[in-house]
Amino acid sequence: MAVKFFGQFLIQKGEISVDQLREALDFMESRNRSFCDMAVEKGLISQTDADGLKSLESNTPTTASQAAVEEGYLTTEQVSEVLKAQQGARIRIGEALVELGFINQASLPQLLEAFHTDQSDYQIGKVKLPSAFQKNLMAEYVVDFFPKFVEKISKIKLKVYDDSHGSTAHLELVSSLVVFGQHSLRVCLSSDESFAKGLLDGIAASIPNPDRETLQGVLGEFLNIVVGNAVAALERHDCEAELDTPVFGKFPDDDYRFQITSTVGQATLGLELLN
Predict the structure, then answer these.
(1) Which residues of the chain fall short of a pLDDT of 50?
(2) Are residues 242 and 205 in the same domain?
(3) Does residue 70 belong to any structural domain of this protein?
(4) Listed residues 67, 94, 118: the one ending a domain
(5) Residues 38 and 62 in one domain
(6) pLDDT at 206
(7) pLDDT at 246
(8) Across-strand partners of 271?
(9) Among the four 23, 45, 121, 252, which has the fewest Cβ within 10 Å?
(10) Residues 158, 269: one domain?
(11) pLDDT at 37 (0 to 100)
């Protein structure tokens, strides 16, 4: 067994094909409204305001709903109204597969139950740092920001789970960087080519057939984004931090690891205390 998404589970069980899952995901993307689009649809903000909020959301850890209140576009009551409407209109992967005729409505509850049983050994949720890291603010920010920026920049859905002894031997690409200061930390990211290509599509214009050096570089650039924002957050606590440049190579042996499964590939995030 392994951590997986419902669509991946259905492919493994032979219920749907890879092409059918892709079509269902595209269908979901076309139907599901973002917070900003829903707020415009309800006449609460202008398209210009929505574009500004989307830009802010893409480049900072802040969500559009948080930024809408902080920037004075919406009240907390209006945000709740938009979120409720957004949730009510959202279509999920199982519903999309049914609507497209790839699975039937009668079998969906049984398939969901089988999926939850398959995944019952895995505790997926907000990841928790081990006690050795809990006074390291840099580690807290990196673990918090990493999944947020993956989804913001590359629209990749992922699950992060604690697997401190997990192997990275199957992951071809490795990048790491070091933050020096009061909360020194080495942050490492290893991934397969599919995950790196997903990040690349979000960070830069699509590059056909990217080579290994390009994919290795995109891991380093993504770490720069995540850790750079963590450094900025540290500075708000009056903590000085200096970010080194990314380097490429093997994972350290004494790091703490989080395994990542996503809609495009696999990755591992590693943290190593330096003081």
Answers:
(1) 1, 124
(2) yes
(3) yes
(4) 118
(5) yes
(6) 65
(7) 86
(8) 187, 256
(9) 121
(10) yes
(11) 93
How far from 91 is each of 31, 34, 61, CA to CA, in Å? 7, 12, 25
- pLDDT for 97 equals 95
pLDDT of 249: 77
236-270 pLDDT per residue, tens:
888 888 888 888 877 777 788 888 888 888 899 99
Nearest residue to 94 via CA among 28, 30, 160 = 28
In a domain, 74, yes or no: yes
Note whether residue 23 is domain-resident.
yes
Q: What is the pTM of this model?
A: 0.70
Q: How much is the pLDDT for 167?
A: 61
For residues 141 and 221, membership in a common domain is answered with yes
State whether 139 and 245 are in the same domain. yes
Do 76 and 158 lie in a common domain? no
pLDDT value at position 69?
Answer: 92
Pair 195, 228 in one domain: yes
Euclidean distance between CA atoms 121 and 118, whole angstroms: 8
First to last CA, the chain: 37
> Rounded distance, CA 11 to CA 20, Å?
9
Classify residue 125: in a domain, yes or no.
Answer: no
Other beta carbons within 10 Å of 48:
9
Q: Are residues 108 and 225 in the same domain?
A: no
- Structural domain range at position 81: 6-118
Q: How far apart are CA 242 and CA 228, in angstroms?
A: 9
